[in-house]
Design goal:
single chain; 232 residues; Rossmann fold; six-stranded mixed β-sheet; 7 helices; binds adenosine-5'-diphosphate; binds magnesium ion
């Protein structure tokens, strides 16, 4: 499979222009294959979120290059980057940032509304299908604020998929869920990976979960410490 993401010689220094600059990513190289299911593990403060934010073009590396879908993102303008992000990458965070006063269905449609394209029947069908996949058909017209933590996270998963992204980046997506719900959410992510061939890169502190991925990448002090392929 071709690489959907390529990181080349990534360095990240926070506070570069301050008296106390801190380097948190060191000369990091990483290729991610299309359709693969990857987990990133590592201690708190090791640089996982920084790396994922650079990979998702939410943050810029101090030096190095990020290729998404064979395109060098370094040369893109802010507008080009936000279009690339919205069309190619879905994000799932630990805190889901749903719009509380909107229904589950409206929240799922939100990344599509941002593209300002008209809501077609096809998109509506997709939103309903995604809500079905995440098991929320019965409550899709409930306000987000009235849903449980697990339900809200499943709305966030459906939302991350509405634009049919090639890549899903998830930063501790089950960090505030109980272990049963965590298990269900991961099963769901796997199903989506198989069904839509979506590439997943998931940060998790849960080793049990990480071990279910095709590949485990361990970050230690801003470097790749271990890189294990499961089915190689
Ligand atoms: N915006 C920032 N400014 C300065 N330092 C930061 C910033 N974000 C993260 N850091 C520091 O970078 C290091 C890595 O953080 P992070 O990527 O969040 O680690 P992880 O996600 O593995 O816990 C930590 O020491 C953290 O304090
Ligand atoms: Mg983090």
């Amino acid at each position: 499979m071709p690489n959907i993401v390529e990181l080349r010689n990534i360095n990240k220094i926070y506070g570069e222009k301050t008296p106390n600059p801190t380097q948190v990513i060191f000369d990091l190289n990483l290729n991610i294959e299309e359709h693969s299911f990857n987990s990133i593990i590592g201690q708190s403060g090791s640089g996982k979120s920084t790396l994922l934010n650079i990979l998702g073009t939410l943050d810029k590396a101090t030096s190095g290059e990020v290729y998404i879908n064979q395109k060098n993102t370094q040369k893109m303008t802010k507008n080009e980057l936000s279009t690339l992000r919205n069309e190619t990458i879905g994000f799932i965070f630990q805190f889901h940032y749903l719009l509380p006063e909107y229904t589950a269905l409206e929240n799922v449609l939100m990344p599509y509304r941002i593209t300002k394209k008209p809501i077609t029947k096809e998109i509506m069908d997709r939103a309903h299908e995604l809500l079905e996949i995440v098991g929320l058909t019965k409550v899709k017209n409930n306000l987000a604020i009235n849903m449980s933590g697990g339900q809200q996270q499943r709305v966030a998963i459906a939302r991350s998929l509405i634009n049919n992204p090639k890549i899903i980046l998830a930063d501790e997506p089950t960090g505030n869920l109980d272990s049963d719900t965590t298990e269900q959410v991961y099963k769901l992510l796997r199903e989506i990976n198989e069904r839509y061939q979506t590439t997943f890169i998931i940060i998790t502190h849960d080793r049990h979960i990480a071990e279910k991925a095709d590949r485990i990448i361990e970050i230690k002090d801003g470097r790749i410490n271990l890189d294990i392929y499961k089915n190689a």
